[in-house]
Design brief:
This protein is an alpha/beta fold. It has 2 domains: 205 residues, Rossmann fold; 169 residues, 3-Layer(aba) Sandwich (Rossmann fold). It has 15 helices and 14 strands. The chain has a 7-stranded parallel β-sheet, sandwiched between helices. A 7-stranded parallel β-sheet has the order 10-11-9-12-13-8-14, sandwiched between helices. β3, α5 and β4 form a beta-alpha-beta unit. The termini are far apart.
């Protein structure tokens, strides 16, 4: 199957060819046709499956053939990084068309706000927005959404995890009742099903199985106490002087700062990125990393989904992710396009059960390595849940209620 088989506009096909796209991915093969027919759709697909093109191409096809230069499509996403990335995809696919787009997100200056306001008042074909910033504009009363024909929620599960359920439902009240609705989510928890039931009408359901890390990824885990992690990271990077691109994931902004400070002290070319930076600063950091001017980038999970950075040689999980699926997203940053890469996860004694959950998900045992003796001792492999969580779960099960194990003692006891 090729993109020619969908009946897309010639200008879009020209852009697709120019961008080097050849064969549609499974999500594109299943989604483009129904979307072009105007059907609502709910798709379960993770980052890296090609879902962005799966919804953009049919929407762009309609906008090109019936161009009115009004706001016809609203795409809602959880983060500014994903908003920027989708907007860049629109610009690429629509390069030979009159279709325009703008990302709406927070963290910018007054000039950014004015540009967003102007686009929302005058009408821009495609708006890609984060919920919070869009709500701020809606509250001002000048937003015109009466011509919106397409509503797209991307990474819906993450938006709900971030507490955007009420914002999304409020935004929808500003839209025409008659419209096409598309929802994409990496996972399908009950909250997503509830939201889908409220928004979608007789949707086509598409599920693309959770992919495993690419075969070209060499996966390993070091068993290390928390106190030895920074020293181990320095050793791992120093031992690989020829590696050009290293991405380190940390669970908190505080740890990002600590890791960057330590690596700089040892002479490594490193930068950190987190929500503490202004948007223009984050974009500049990413640009330096993409262009190989920065060798090591330390980030929170803001980069694990939705950011397209190619040719990363090594991904290091300074902390094991809480969700096993997030491991696949993180590791998916390396070994792209049939290349090879290395994924290293640092596992302390409290996180061993997380690594076991990851192994169960990817159906593969990850090589576990002791740290070099001069760095310190390694904890023994023993993947039990932490004491607090085991006690919580056992008491909860006995009581028959979630969290039932922690009750106030009765008076006199």
């Amino acid at each position: 199957m090729t993109f020619n088989d969908f009946g897309l506009n010639e200008t879009l096909l020209e852009a697709i060819n120019y961008l080097g796209f050849e064969t549609p991915t499974p999500i594109q093969q299943k989604a483009i046709g129904p979307i072009m027919k105007g059907r609502d759709l709910i798709g379960s697909a993770q980052t890296g499956t090609g879902k962005t093109a799966a919804f953009l191409l049919p929407i762009l096809n309609e906008l090109v053939e019936e161009h009115e230069h009004v706001t016809g499509t609203l795409i809602i996403v959880p983060t500014r990084e994903l908003a920027i990335q989708i907007d860049q995809h629109v610009q690429g696919f629509a390069y030979f068309t009159p279709v325009e787009s703008i990302p709406i997100y927070g963290g910018g200056d007054g000039l950014g706000w004015e540009q967003q306001k102007k686009a929302l008042i005058s009408g821009t074909d495609i708006i890609v927005a984060t919920p919070g910033k869009l709500i701020s504009h809606l509250n001002m009363g000048y937003v015109k959404f009466d011509k919106v024909r397409h509503l797209i929620l991307d990474e819906a599960d993450r938006m709900l995890d971030m507490g955007f359920f009420e914002d999304i439902t409020k935004i929808i009240t500003y839209l025409p009742k008659e419209r096409q609705n598309l929802m994409f989510s990496a996972t399908m928890p009950p909250k997503i099903r509830q939201l889908a039931k409220q928004i979608l009408k007789d949707p086509v359901e598409i599920s693309i199985a959770m992919s495993k890390p690419a075969e070209g990824v060499l996966q390993a885990a070091y068993l290390v106490y928390e106190a030895g992690k920074v020293k181990l990271i320095n050793r791992l990077i120093a031992d690989k002087p020829d590696v050009q691109s290293i991405l380190i994931f940390s669970s908190t902004k505080k740890k990002v700062f600590e890791i960057v400070r330590s690596l700089k002290r040892h002479g490594h070319q490193v930068e950190g990125i987190s929500s503490d930076l202004e948007q223009h600063e984050r974009e500049e950091v990413l640009l330096r990393f993409k262009s190989k001017r920065t060798r090591v980038l330390v980030a929170t999970d803001v980069l694990s989904r939705g950011i397209d950075i190619k040719e990363i040689n090594i991904v290091i999980n300074y902390d094991a992710p809480n969700d096993a699926e997030d491991y696949v997203h993180r590791v998916g940053r390396t070994a792209r396009a049939d290349a090879t890469g290395i994924a290293i996860t640092l596992i302390n004694e409290e996180d061993m059960y997380k690594l076991q959950s990851i192994e169960e998900l990817i159906e593969q045992e990850i090589l576990k390595l002791p740290i070099p003796p001069d760095i310190g001792d390694s904890p023994k492999w023993n993947p039990r849940r932490p004491t607090f969580e085991r006690n919580f779960r056992s008491r909860s099960n006995k009581s028959g209620k979630k969290g039932g194990g922690f009750r106030k003692p009765r008076k006199g006891k």
